[in-house]
Backbone:
């Protein structure tokens, strides 16, 4: 079975972290590095196979915003 294509607004889960020391940003006070098992929403696809994903806290603050490769993510829910 093949991997489904991913696109903006899809909800994804981090299944592996291929890059140690990955660059990420987030809201002060809640910011932390992405972890396996975290879920987020794809907010941009800047290049084929590269996805910018945002993980948001319940209050709306950004926990992390980071770039991922396709093999680091699995689809949780499509946008449409």
Residues:
């Amino acid at each position: 079975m093949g991997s489904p294509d991913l696109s903006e607004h899809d909800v994804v889960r981090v299944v592996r972290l291929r890059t140690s020391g990955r660059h990420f940003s987030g809201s002060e006070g809640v910011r932390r590095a992405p972890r396996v098992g975290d879920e987020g929403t794809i907010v941009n696809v800047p290049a084929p196979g590269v996805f910018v994903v945002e993980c948001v806290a319940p209050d709306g603050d950004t926990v992390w915003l980071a770039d991922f490769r396709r093999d680091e993510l699995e689809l949780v829910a499509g946008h449409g």
Q: What stands out?
A: The longest strand covers residues 39-47. The chain has one domain: 11-77. The mean pLDDT is 92.
